[in-house]
Amino acid sequence: MDLVPFSVKKACFLVRSLTAAILVFAYGCGDDSDTRVVDFSKTVAVEQSGDRSAVNLSLRVAVAAMISPKETFVYHRQVLDYIGRRLDRDIELIQRKTYGEIDKLFGMDQIDLAFICSGPYATGKEKYGFELLATPEVLGSHFYRSYLIVNKDSPFQRLEDLRGRVFAFTDPDSNTGRLVPVYWLAQMQERPKTFFSETIKTYGHDNSILAVAWGLVDGAAVDGLIWEYYKHKNSTFTSKTRIIKKSEPYGIPPLVVRKSLPAELKERIRLLLFSMHQDPEGQRILRELRIDRFVMPQEAWYEPIRQMVNKLALLNKELHEPEKP
To answer: What is the pTM of this model?
Structure first.
């Protein structure tokens, strides 16, 4: 069955109509000028930063809204509360819709600790002062991939088959949700705005999976860990999608800390994370997130992303029309 591409206006109308259905279903990680935004769901509102002197015993921790399935938010909160109790510190949770918003707050020292995407870490380490603290190990691996998915009933077998179709990106700075597919296109001497008929931004890998499953878009690139999470937890929507391409492996999105945080505090947090899987309470929380344990990250795990960004810049230069990675 050949899917009829939806226009973005139709997609927006359907999304507004079906938002309630998404919430009921939930089971319980430089932008193109012609790219439209489809906001599939609300994010948690958070108060703006204030005077840190009054809360010097608190830790300000950020979780980017698209870093993991939305129903795991409660378990990310439990990870943070676990750390807070053992450090005897309050946790101030910050959530923003885009990676860029998290990056800016981090650069202003308004965030102490953050779950971020591998892409923003690899490309923004120096600019925003990210320091690797820990990386999740999932199913025995500290690597993940981008999955190119289509509806299971569609005829599409290759990225080339999506020419002239509607495609979903997640966040402009997402590694698996945008950088990887843009790089694939550049290798084909193509760019999103000329290859696809329309592109949208969903600001969530789970949103992109839903969009493909419902036929709102013809294809999307998503975090493989999140697709596998849904396949394991509730395959209602992943079963309506099909993987047609996987990327090379990249370091799993890390937990980072600001460089100016006291060294002793960094080490205490790191040791708590590394021993979390040995504690019954910690095991329970990690199990719900499908995390085996936290491990010491290595800079080399994220180097392939930087290499991809550099290669993409060269490929775009060859196209005589540079595009933001």
So the answer is: 0.79
